[in-house]
Amino acid sequence: MLKKILLGIVLNSLALFVVTKLVTDLQFTGGLLFFVIGGTIIGVLNTFVKPLMKLLSFPLVLFSAGLFIFVINVIIFWLTVKAINGIHFSDVTVMVNSVWTYFIAAFIFAIINWILHILVPNK
User: Fold this and answer.
1) Ramachandran quadrant class, 32 (left: phi over 0; alpha: psi -120 to 50; beta: rest)
2) What are phi and psi of 96, to 5 degrees?
3) Euclidean distance between the first and the last CA atom of the chain, given in angstroms as a whole number
């Protein structure tokens, strides 16, 4: 169980690292600690908040043929940024310059995370 949780944090952190390298409008401080905290927060949100959001937005997901899941991913990414800045971790901040940056970052994160989970099965 602990191995699965730690692997999820590592994979989320790696995906977040790739996002920060590819999306120039996303600035962060805190180095490795940023990625660990960000990966952990994303993991918690994906475990507890995302299923509830999918359930509540089921008609929209169905009507959009699943494309609304992308909007949910953007909201999860936005919540992650708000959590990192709101909790005030020591020397860890993140700044997103525009709404479109959330969309781009969430899209890249989803693709990278999907690839990582194929390469490293988390079972």
Assistant:
1) alpha
2) -115, 125
3) 9
For residues 63 and 81, is the Cβ–Cβ distance under 8 A? no
> For residues 12 and 34, what is the distance between their CA atoms, to the nearest angstrom?
12
Q: Which phi and psi angles does 122 have, rounded to 5°?
A: -105, 70
DSSP alpha helices (H): ranges in 23-98? 32-44, 50-56, 58-63, 68-87
Cα four-point dihedral sign 60, 64, 65, 66: negative
pTM above 0.85, yes or no: yes
Task: List the beta bridge partners of residue 28.
Answer: 94
Least Cα distance to 106 among 7, 22, 9, 4 occurs for 22
Amino acid at 12: N
State mean pLDDT over 7-36: 95
- Coil vs helix vs strand at 93: strand
Dig out the tokens for 112 from the structure.
């990278």
The 10s digit of each residue's pLDDT in 55-86 is 999 999 999 999 999 999 999 999 999 999 99
